[in-house]
Here is the input.
Amino acid sequence: MAQAESVGGDLQLVHLTKMFATFTAVDDLNLVIPKGSFFALLGPSGCGKTTTLRMVAGLEEPTSGQIMIGEKDISFERPYRRPVNTVFQSYALFPHLDIFENVAFGLRRRKVKEVKSQVEAILSLVELDGFARRMPAQLSGGQQQRVALARALINKPEVLLLDEPLGALDLKLRRQMQIELKRIQVEVGITFVHVTHDQEEAMTMADTIAVMNGGKVEQMGSPTELYENPRTTFVANFLGQSNLISGKVFERSDDLGVELYGNRIRVPRSRTSSNSDSLWVGVRPEKINITLADRPIPAANVIPGVVTDASYIGVSTQYLVKTAWSEELMVFEQNLLNSGARPGDSVNLSWDPAHTFALDANQDVDAGVEVPEADS
Amino acid sequence: MRTRRWLPYALLIPGILWLAIFFIAPMFNLGATSLYDPNGSLDTGYRMTFHVANYGDALSQYYPQFLRSFSYAGIATISALIIAYPLAYAIAFKSGRWKNFLLVLVIAPFFTSFLVRTLAWTAILGDNSTFVHFLHTIHLLGPQGRILATPVAVITGLTYNFLPFMTLPLYASLEKIDPRLIEASSDLYASAFTGFRKVTVPLSLPGVVAGTLLTFIPASGDYINATLLGQGARTSMIGNVIDSAFLVRLAYPLAAALSFMLMAAIVGIVIFYIRRAGTEELV
Here is the structure.
């Protein structure tokens, strides 16, 4: 992690900790969020992401640690003195003010001139021209969401905080707003820090994602990096789905040879996040080829099994394949390469070593699986 | 199941009957009485002469009591608002698990009668009370100065008696305010005070309007506070005049005309007030 040298307008969290009575919501968090980036804090409910956001906004006081924007320590600055604005989860639009006055609220408090032209410009950015004199209650959820965004953005904050901003929208609108938010972020170039429990939302929009669990960052990186090369079982399971198989290292050379219940496979060293000899070997379901037992095998890492379930879901067919040691592995096969496998068939599962990752076996194999959704 | 269209009307019947018998009929009767010949009496009977001059006579004779009533009620309403707002605010936002207990305390005075509570104030404000002695000691009141039998006493009584009617609607509207709106205002550069002024106060206006009406209307027609705490003609309110015209002097047409004018004046004031409140001009 980068040290506290000169970092321009980056948002830095240094050893940030928040305790509620005996519960540690945020545990010694260290993050540098580069200026102008779209950053997502992703995690299940209770992982400390919202508390982190509220500390940056000034709505919670840190128990210890620092929050810096550039060179400036804002850890204990009053919320109304911070160059930070928030898009609240429930929007929190002022019900007694019309859209114009809601959006102008921050400008008026700072006695900024030329309110009218700025409000009109920002309403046009969020495509709400002509809505200025409506009341919040007269707008749909998606429109209210955009008002909340405009109300925060108009102040040109150093950092814009978004607390589950799309949580209350239906799926179709959410997709649309994801694209919209990304467009707006690129257009205004402000640092966006986005808190969500929806991995798809985080992956669609963010340049960098920090996956949080139990008040700590599990792993940070680009969406591709997190998905392709997870470093903990939590990340492997929370972002998409993973097949994790227990294995023992039998050879260390340019790459690692790992034995999975008698099946020898290879894992690149760069994709191994542990020096231990006991590993969880992981592979994503869509990276696996499924071929009937008597057909040629297309990739180097192979495990035989028997199909127990096949469900056709349009874009792909999802198979469950039982291995000799009774673990059920998941395989997603594109409906382009039809293997013709049916329940009861003996098959070979094969994948490229480059798509394999290995994690320390010390971790709970089910971490991050089926996390109950905190939809609000 | 078929909709029984007549059912809603049937359910209205008891209410309508009640209003017809105990409100509309007496109102009609009172209106008629206000136009009787004022020279009649209970013994000789009244003649209906459509004597509209009853109203003019009543007004020219008693306009000081009208004005006094509305100014006492107005001052009492404002005092009650000043006391009740912080109280309701504290109960709504700061009381934690004491909330219900405090609300019970607010309505606790209703467990005893209005008359008894007002009588108790004659002791609190009486010439030999600790409170008055204290005022003498700190020279806020001259050596012969009194509180009882002054406008201050009447207004204090009115303020006290109608305080719960101010507090409860204020509490109800404050309690409904989403605390995230206050957070949003502080996120948007409003200090705590500005947030209070620009968000909390406007959102509590419905409570302010309801509370002021519930205080002002009964306070304007009240005569118990003036009788017990005012104790004399110098503080008598229009309620006292109507009371004595009906029950002491038995001047029914005069009393009826005064009652009607009081009602009309209150309705007028209320309509004017609600119109203003509706357009944010009160803020």
Notes: Chain B touches chain A at residues 178, 180-181, 183-191, 194, 198-199, 202-203 (CB under 8 Å). The two ends of chain B are 51 Å apart (CA to CA). Chain B has a mean pLDDT of 91.
